[in-house]
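Bumping my old thread because nobody answered last time. Still need a sequence for this structure:
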């Protein structure tokens, strides 16, 4: 079984957005969102490093 990652997303805020959109939230939805957030951060760090920077900037999250 995979190690559970520390939550990066505020569950109540994410659920409220989904509820406002007329959707329910399954028990594993936030785990999926959290996993995606970790992946996105890792990709942004790789892009910054590939461009010779240690600082992740907003545009590192685009064009993934």
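Sorry it took so long. Here it is:
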């Amino acid at each position: 079984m995979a190690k559970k990652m520390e939550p990066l997303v505020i569950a109540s805020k994410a659920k409220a957005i989904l509820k406002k959109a007329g959707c329910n939230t399954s028990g594993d939805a936030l785990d999926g969102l959290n996993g995606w957030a970790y992946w996105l951060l890792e990709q942004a760090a790789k892009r910054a490093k590939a461009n010779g920077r240690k600082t992740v900037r907003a545009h590192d999250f685009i064009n993934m």
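The two ends are 28 Å apart (CA to CA). Let me know if any region looks off to you.
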